[in-house]
Amino acid sequence: MKSSVIVFPGSNCDRDIAVALEKLQFKNKMVWHKDSELPKSDLIVIPGGFSYGDYLRSGAIAAKSKILNEVIKAANKGCLILGVCNGFQILIETGLIKGALLRNKNLKFINKDVYLKVNNTNQFCKNYKNGQIIKLNIAHNEGNYFTDKNHLMEIKENNLIAFQYCDEKGLVNDETNPNGSLNNIAGILNSKKNILGMMPHPERMIDKIISNEDGLNIFSSILN
Q1: C-alpha–C-alpha distance, residues 59 and 35, integer Å
Q2: Is 0.90 surpassed by the pTM of this model?
Q3: Domain ranges of the chain
Q4: Active-site residues: which are they?
Q5: What's the first-to-final CA gap in the chain, in angstroms?
Q6: Helices (DSSP H) in 77-115: which residue ranges?
Q7: Among 7, 92, 135, 173, which is least packed, fewest CB within 10 Å?
Q8: What is the pLDDT of residue 57?
Protein backbone atom coordinates (compact mmCIF):
# COMPACT_ATOMS: atom_id res chain seq x y z
CA MET A 1 0.00 0.00 0.00
CA LYS A 2 1.37 3.43 -0.95
CA SER A 3 1.32 6.38 1.41
CA SER A 4 2.42 10.02 1.30
CA VAL A 5 3.21 12.28 4.27
CA ILE A 6 2.90 16.01 3.62
CA VAL A 7 5.68 18.06 5.25
CA PHE A 8 5.43 21.76 6.13
CA PRO A 9 7.91 24.14 7.76
CA GLY A 10 7.08 23.56 11.40
CA SER A 11 5.96 19.93 11.05
CA ASN A 12 7.51 17.93 13.90
CA CYS A 13 5.66 14.61 13.78
CA ASP A 14 6.23 13.80 10.11
CA ARG A 15 9.09 11.38 10.81
CA ASP A 16 7.13 9.70 13.60
CA ILE A 17 4.28 9.08 11.15
CA ALA A 18 6.76 7.72 8.60
CA VAL A 19 8.18 5.30 11.20
CA ALA A 20 4.67 4.05 12.02
CA LEU A 21 3.82 3.55 8.34
CA GLU A 22 7.10 1.86 7.51
CA LYS A 23 6.76 -0.44 10.53
CA LEU A 24 3.68 -1.85 8.79
CA GLN A 25 5.49 -1.91 5.44
CA PHE A 26 3.65 0.93 3.73
CA LYS A 27 5.61 2.20 0.71
CA ASN A 28 5.89 5.74 2.00
CA LYS A 29 7.08 9.01 0.48
CA MET A 30 7.65 12.37 2.15
CA VAL A 31 6.13 15.21 0.12
CA TRP A 32 7.26 18.82 0.55
CA HIS A 33 4.45 21.39 0.81
CA LYS A 34 5.72 23.37 -2.22
CA ASP A 35 5.53 20.36 -4.53
CA SER A 36 2.81 20.57 -7.15
CA GLU A 37 2.57 16.83 -7.85
CA LEU A 38 1.41 14.15 -5.47
CA PRO A 39 2.77 10.59 -5.78
CA LYS A 40 0.18 7.90 -6.44
CA SER A 41 -1.15 7.24 -2.95
CA ASP A 42 -3.68 5.03 -1.22
CA LEU A 43 -3.26 7.06 1.97
CA ILE A 44 -2.22 10.68 2.53
CA VAL A 45 -1.21 11.81 6.01
CA ILE A 46 -1.05 15.41 7.18
CA PRO A 47 1.08 15.20 10.34
CA GLY A 48 1.19 17.14 13.57
CA GLY A 49 3.41 20.06 14.45
CA PHE A 50 3.19 23.81 14.16
CA SER A 51 3.04 24.57 10.44
CA TYR A 52 4.25 28.12 9.82
CA GLY A 53 4.53 28.54 13.59
CA ASP A 54 0.71 28.62 13.87
CA TYR A 55 0.94 32.17 12.52
CA LEU A 56 -2.46 33.83 11.89
CA ARG A 57 -4.35 30.70 12.93
CA SER A 58 -3.33 27.05 13.31
CA GLY A 59 -3.25 25.44 9.88
CA ALA A 60 -4.48 28.54 8.05
CA ILE A 61 -1.36 29.16 5.95
CA ALA A 62 -0.58 25.49 5.38
CA ALA A 63 -4.08 25.01 3.95
CA LYS A 64 -3.12 27.34 1.09
CA SER A 65 0.00 25.38 0.12
CA LYS A 66 0.38 24.13 -3.47
CA ILE A 67 0.28 20.47 -2.56
CA LEU A 68 -3.03 20.87 -0.70
CA ASN A 69 -4.76 21.45 -4.03
CA GLU A 70 -3.71 17.93 -5.00
CA VAL A 71 -4.66 16.54 -1.59
CA ILE A 72 -8.16 17.99 -1.96
CA LYS A 73 -8.50 16.48 -5.44
CA ALA A 74 -7.37 13.09 -4.14
CA ALA A 75 -9.78 13.33 -1.19
CA ASN A 76 -12.69 14.11 -3.50
CA LYS A 77 -11.80 11.00 -5.52
CA GLY A 78 -12.01 8.83 -2.40
CA CYS A 79 -8.35 8.60 -1.33
CA LEU A 80 -7.93 7.94 2.40
CA ILE A 81 -6.76 11.04 4.28
CA LEU A 82 -5.53 11.11 7.88
CA GLY A 83 -4.93 14.43 9.62
CA VAL A 84 -3.33 14.32 13.08
CA CYS A 85 -3.30 17.32 15.45
CA ASN A 86 -2.05 20.19 13.24
CA GLY A 87 -3.10 17.97 10.34
CA PHE A 88 -6.64 17.97 11.73
CA GLN A 89 -6.48 21.77 11.96
CA ILE A 90 -5.35 21.93 8.33
CA LEU A 91 -8.22 19.66 7.23
CA ILE A 92 -10.64 22.03 8.97
CA GLU A 93 -9.06 25.04 7.24
CA THR A 94 -9.38 23.41 3.81
CA GLY A 95 -13.03 22.56 4.42
CA LEU A 96 -12.42 18.83 3.99
CA ILE A 97 -13.84 18.42 7.49
CA LYS A 98 -16.53 20.72 8.86
CA GLY A 99 -16.30 22.58 12.16
CA ALA A 100 -13.64 24.58 13.99
CA LEU A 101 -10.81 23.92 16.43
CA LEU A 102 -10.74 26.60 19.12
CA ARG A 103 -8.34 27.37 21.96
CA ASN A 104 -8.35 24.83 24.77
CA LYS A 105 -10.85 25.66 27.51
CA ASN A 106 -8.10 26.52 30.02
CA LEU A 107 -6.22 28.59 27.38
CA LYS A 108 -3.11 26.49 27.99
CA PHE A 109 -1.09 24.07 25.88
CA ILE A 110 -1.86 20.48 26.89
CA ASN A 111 0.63 17.62 26.58
CA LYS A 112 -0.42 14.38 28.27
CA ASP A 113 -1.72 10.87 27.69
CA VAL A 114 -5.50 10.57 27.56
CA TYR A 115 -8.07 7.80 27.30
CA LEU A 116 -10.27 7.56 24.22
CA LYS A 117 -13.40 5.58 23.42
CA VAL A 118 -13.50 4.07 19.93
CA ASN A 119 -17.00 4.85 18.67
CA ASN A 120 -17.18 2.86 15.46
CA THR A 121 -15.27 0.40 13.32
CA ASN A 122 -14.89 2.42 10.14
CA GLN A 123 -12.00 1.73 7.76
CA PHE A 124 -9.63 3.68 10.03
CA CYS A 125 -10.71 1.75 13.13
CA LYS A 126 -11.77 -1.72 11.95
CA ASN A 127 -9.02 -3.42 13.97
CA TYR A 128 -10.40 -1.97 17.20
CA LYS A 129 -13.53 -3.19 18.94
CA ASN A 130 -16.50 -0.84 19.03
CA GLY A 131 -16.46 0.84 22.45
CA GLN A 132 -12.83 -0.14 23.12
CA ILE A 133 -10.86 2.17 25.44
CA ILE A 134 -7.37 3.12 24.27
CA LYS A 135 -4.68 5.52 25.50
CA LEU A 136 -2.98 8.03 23.18
CA ASN A 137 -1.01 11.25 23.65
CA ILE A 138 -2.28 14.77 23.01
CA ALA A 139 -0.12 17.85 22.55
CA HIS A 140 -2.03 20.91 21.38
CA ASN A 141 -3.18 24.42 22.15
CA GLU A 142 -6.18 24.51 19.81
CA GLY A 143 -7.96 21.18 20.09
CA ASN A 144 -11.37 22.35 21.29
CA TYR A 145 -13.67 21.03 18.54
CA PHE A 146 -16.81 23.05 17.83
CA THR A 147 -19.55 22.96 15.23
CA ASP A 148 -23.15 24.12 14.82
CA LYS A 149 -26.19 22.20 16.08
CA ASN A 150 -27.23 20.93 12.64
CA HIS A 151 -23.80 19.50 11.89
CA LEU A 152 -23.54 17.97 15.37
CA MET A 153 -26.86 16.23 14.78
CA GLU A 154 -25.61 15.05 11.38
CA ILE A 155 -22.40 13.56 12.72
CA LYS A 156 -24.25 11.79 15.52
CA GLU A 157 -26.92 10.35 13.20
CA ASN A 158 -24.32 9.18 10.67
CA ASN A 159 -21.87 7.80 13.25
CA LEU A 160 -19.06 10.14 12.22
CA ILE A 161 -17.51 10.62 15.68
CA ALA A 162 -14.54 8.28 15.59
CA PHE A 163 -13.12 8.94 19.07
CA GLN A 164 -14.28 10.62 22.27
CA TYR A 165 -12.24 11.65 25.31
CA CYS A 166 -13.12 9.50 28.31
CA ASP A 167 -11.60 7.96 31.44
CA GLU A 168 -10.13 4.48 31.88
CA LYS A 169 -13.64 3.08 32.43
CA GLY A 170 -15.06 4.74 29.32
CA LEU A 171 -17.03 7.49 31.05
CA VAL A 172 -17.59 10.46 28.74
CA ASN A 173 -18.33 13.73 30.55
CA ASP A 174 -16.95 17.19 31.30
CA GLU A 175 -14.46 15.81 33.80
CA THR A 176 -12.91 13.53 31.18
CA ASN A 177 -12.73 16.31 28.58
CA PRO A 178 -9.20 17.80 28.50
CA ASN A 179 -9.81 20.72 26.13
CA GLY A 180 -13.53 21.57 26.18
CA SER A 181 -14.25 19.85 22.87
CA LEU A 182 -17.95 19.64 21.99
CA ASN A 183 -19.38 16.24 22.95
CA ASN A 184 -15.83 15.20 24.01
CA ILE A 185 -14.95 14.80 20.31
CA ALA A 186 -11.33 13.72 19.77
CA GLY A 187 -11.63 12.50 16.18
CA ILE A 188 -14.19 12.95 13.43
CA LEU A 189 -14.88 11.59 9.94
CA ASN A 190 -16.16 13.42 6.89
CA SER A 191 -19.54 12.39 5.45
CA LYS A 192 -17.95 9.94 2.97
CA LYS A 193 -15.83 8.42 5.77
CA ASN A 194 -12.61 8.52 3.75
CA ILE A 195 -11.13 11.37 5.83
CA LEU A 196 -10.28 11.20 9.53
CA GLY A 197 -9.18 14.19 11.56
CA MET A 198 -8.00 13.59 15.12
CA MET A 199 -6.16 15.55 17.79
CA PRO A 200 -4.47 12.61 19.62
CA HIS A 201 -1.25 11.19 18.14
CA PRO A 202 -1.51 7.49 17.19
CA GLU A 203 2.05 7.54 15.79
CA ARG A 204 3.41 8.07 19.31
CA MET A 205 1.85 4.85 20.55
CA ILE A 206 3.24 2.11 18.32
CA ASP A 207 5.88 0.50 20.52
CA LYS A 208 5.56 -1.09 23.97
CA ILE A 209 9.14 -0.18 24.86
CA ILE A 210 8.56 3.60 24.73
CA SER A 211 4.79 3.87 25.29
CA ASN A 212 2.13 1.38 24.22
CA GLU A 213 0.78 -0.01 20.95
CA ASP A 214 -2.72 1.50 21.13
CA GLY A 215 -2.14 3.67 18.06
CA LEU A 216 -0.93 0.86 15.85
CA ASN A 217 -4.39 -0.38 14.92
CA ILE A 218 -5.22 2.82 13.08
CA PHE A 219 -2.42 2.12 10.62
CA SER A 220 -3.10 -1.63 10.47
CA SER A 221 -6.81 -0.94 9.87
CA ILE A 222 -5.95 1.25 6.90
CA LEU A 223 -3.55 -1.36 5.58
CA ASN A 224 -6.18 -4.08 5.77
Answers
A1: 18
A2: yes
A3: 2-223
A4: 85, 201, 203
A5: 9
A6: 86-94
A7: 173
A8: 87
